[in-house]
Design goal:
The protein is mainly α and 513 residues long. It is built from 23 helices and two strands. It has a domain of 67 residues.
């Protein structure tokens, strides 16, 4: 389907997304974020010591967590791509002396996560426009950008959103080649993106398997085209996978031995034993916690998720795409149900599912498209779910670290923080300026985004039932979240911990802002 309306007709929405991604900076120095700093310390080691070991930065800049140890040398326990990408950024900002961790985090996030995530939205929009009119595709993109874990993990130096970008780039190349929009030589690019994704995050292999299934289903009747696809992907992925195995060999003594087998803290090792790197048979507690935890379950932090089921059935006419989407969904649900859920605390939702999220946006768009032809209140509820996500998930994203003690991340932590003056940290706070006015603008931006999505989806819809459905869903969902919030000592303790960790403390009552 061609883009029948100019992109500039939606420029307010995309301008808001760009502004929010560039404005907010949810970093809390006192937490000494291990997932971020272990990679950034390795970037410092690469530039300052010309070595993979972080022993030198640990001595010079302080201890960080999430480390592996082999032969008295320390390394990040994570896949290495993000560390290597951060090294030239560190070299650029280093100057005569090492910058603060706040400065390194800011610039590394900007160049390696924020900007790539914004550029990625172009690919997502083009993909959606093949199946949806712009009036639906654009608000679905905005919902993804500000109303899903994509926002939070674009603003934190972890590999999850970069993996989502690389996985989707690989899929987009494959999808475009199958449709005849790109030349077969682009299989090399699909392979390179797939290999880079695995080098960024090991669990990217789940989506790579899904992409392989898509290619096989789409090209099964053309064995020559399928052989070219396999050859191109293997060649494209080889440098990254070869580099990853070389990294493992240098650091841990074997090409298939990762840092998770050599964790420095023995207290974390039990999460990665049994099965394959800790991935076992599924069990209910892990599945339920990932999706239905009142604190950070995906169903509670991403209201639009319930719409996905309505859209999947309308994807069946596109058999390769349907099989691919279901495969990716099932593989990711298997992983989150088979890995110890207690290992990913203090995070915005089940973070390892972030690379799955972009592939759920087409079902969301198809659901909106077909629900529009059915009961108006149901269509309105779907619109309300998308709009509300920008306010709820967005509010959690600008906090981005959720203590394990809180009962509900929105009413037990985010809103109490904002209500006591701890407004979202911004790029101004990153450089020591006042956090109050820009933080307030960030919150207003989330509310404006929610209103814009609701307006865009409901415009031209004369039925009062649709508007009632949207309002009823939003109010009902917020009442539910409020009802499951305990407001107990766990909530108060988590709130106090985040307040003491905030980037810049708010002015005392009565003090000038």
């Amino acid at each position: 389907m061609a883009d029948s309306s100019p992109l500039h007709s939606a420029r307010v929405g995309y301008g808001l997304v760009i502004g929010m991604y560039l404005l907010v900076f949810p970093y809390h120095p006192a937490l000494r974020s291990p997932n971020e700093l272990c990679r950034l310390w390795q970037a410092r080691a690469l530039i300052e010591d010309h070595t993979l070991s972080v022993n030198g930065p640990l001595i010079r800049y302080g201890y960080v967590g999430d480390l592996s140890k082999k032969d008295n040398l320390y390394y990040p326990s994570k896949a290495p791509l993000l560390s290597f990408l951060a090294a030239p950024v560190y070299a650029m900002i280093r100057g005569q002396q090492a910058p603060s961790d706040v400065t390194q985090v800011y610039w590394s996030r900007l160049f390696l996560l924020v900007i790539p995530s914004l550029l990625f939205l172009v690919l997502l929009r083009r993909f959606l426009l093949a199946y949806l009119e712009p009036a639906l595709a654009d608000p679905v993109v905005w919902t993804y950008a500000l109303g899903s874990m994509a926002f939070g993990y674009s603003e934190i130096f972890m590999s999850h959103q970069l993996t989502a970008v690389l996985n989707f780039a690989a899929f987009y190349c494959a999808w475009s080649i199958v449709r005849g929009q790109l030349k077969p030589r682009m299989w090399l690019v699909a392979g390179a993106a797939s290999g880079a994704a695995v080098a960024a995050e090991y669990t990217a292999a789940l989506t790579v398997i899904g992409i392989a299934v898509y290619v096989v289903v789409a090209l099964w009747k053309d064995k020559v085209a399928l052989a070219k696809a396999v050859g191109g992907v293997v060649l494209g992925a080889a440098p990254f996978l070869g580099g990853l195995m070389a990294y493992h060999t240098i650091c841990f003594g074997h090409p298939l031995e990762s840092g998770y087998k050599n964790l420095n803290d023995a207290g974390y090792q039990h999460w990665h034993v049994g099965g394959f790197l800790g991935i076992r048979l599924p069990y209910w507690d892990a599945f339920a916690f990932s999706l239905f935890s009142p604190r950070v379950g995906l169903v509670f932090i991403t209201p639009w998720l319930w719409v996905v089921g309505f859209g999947l059935k309308h994807l069946r006419s596109e058999r390769p795409l349907f099989v691919f989407t279901v495969t990716v969904l099932l593989l990711n649900l298997y992983f989150t149900s088979a890995f110890d859920h207690t290992s990913w605390g203090w995070t915005l939702g089940p973070r390892h599912l972030t690379p799955m999220i972009p592939f759920l946006m087409l079902p969301v768009g198809l659901a909106l498209k077909h629900l529009r032809e059915g009961p108006k209140w149901l269509f309105g509820a779907a619109c309300g779910a998308c709009a509300l996500s920008l306010a709820t998930t967005g509010a959690l994203s600008v906090v981005n670290y959720i203590p394990d003690s809180v009962s509900n991340a929105l009413f037990g932590l985010a809103l109490p923080l904002f209500n006591t003056g701890y407004l979202p940290p911004t790029l101004f706070a990153a450089f020591g300026a006042s956090a109050m006015l820009p933080g307030a603008l960030a919150l207003l931006g989330l509310l404006a985004g929610a209103a814009l999505v609701a307006f865009w989806l409901l415009r031209g819809e004369p039925s009062a039932q649709a508007r009632f459905g949207a309002a009823a869903f939003a109010i009902g969902f917020l009442v539910l979240l409020s009802a499951i919030t305990r407001h107990d000592e766990g909530d108060q303790g988590g709130l106090r911990q985040m307040q003491t960790s905030w980037l810049i403390q708010p002015p005392a009552p009565g003090a000038p802002p």
